[in-house]
Give the backbone structure.
Amino acid sequence: MIRPYVIIVSEVTLDGKLTLYRGASSKELMSLMTKEVYKYLHSLRAQVDGIMVGCETVRTDDPNLTVRYVEGKNPVRIIPCSTANVPYNANIFSKDAPTIIVTTQRAPEERIKKIQELGAEILIAGEDLVDFQVLLPILHQRGIKKLMVEGGASINWEFIRLGFVDELHIIHLPVVVGGENVPTLVGGEGFKSLKKILHFQITNHFVIDNFLITEWKVKPLAKSKN
Ligand SMILES: NC(=O)c1ccc[n+]([C@@H]2O[C@H](COP(=O)([O-])OP(=O)(O)OC[C@H]3O[C@@H](n4cnc5c(N)ncnc54)[C@H](OP(=O)(O)O)[C@@H]3O)[C@@H](O)[C@H]2O)c1
């Protein structure tokens, strides 16, 4: 299958959490990040053709998904959203960058129309949830050769589960949040088997203002060996 090169990028606490509690915007935690750390994050955005977050992240965080802390071109914003349930005043509808809402046959016609009126494009990929096996070749064909996935936990799991990930970049937030039900880097069902888990090779690590940054590449050989 021809697909974009996929880089998952996330800000994660020392105990692996994405946010303060289930349902909380991660913007609160991200406010701990310094300008230099934001520059690192935005320099990654400037190097990709497309940027994706799940629909739940749009609803809770209302991100812009643009390049602001460094010079660079904004990537195309791609939002998987099975019933096109995106707030019409969301920042992803700003004119700063093109936006694609990827939805399914379940999306009501009136939502599709409204989103198109807001200037975003609609793509249908899947019947129940957005089907990334259908979507990724379409994105590649449309010039999205490098895709950055910025969460949340459910979308990260879909990419990991399907093996559609090439790199993982983590900004380690130097705090501990705790909490059993707080979303972690990867949600979903989990592999539940040592034979199935994904292996990574560290390729780079450095510290910016007490924030450890680690960069990893998927190890395909280790995965198939087990
Ligand atoms: N620290 C960080 O770097 C970071 C980054 C991003 C998010 N977050 C946090 O993560 C939390 C949100 O994560 P989340 O896991 O709840 O949601 P998410 O991954 O952002 O979005 C999941 C939603 O995407 C839609 N979807 C469409 N197709 C899907 C598919 N094939 N598989 C899975 N979902 C699909 C579903 O919504 P529909 O039913 O509407 O289709 C689903 O509920 C928030 O608290 C946010 O603040 C943190």
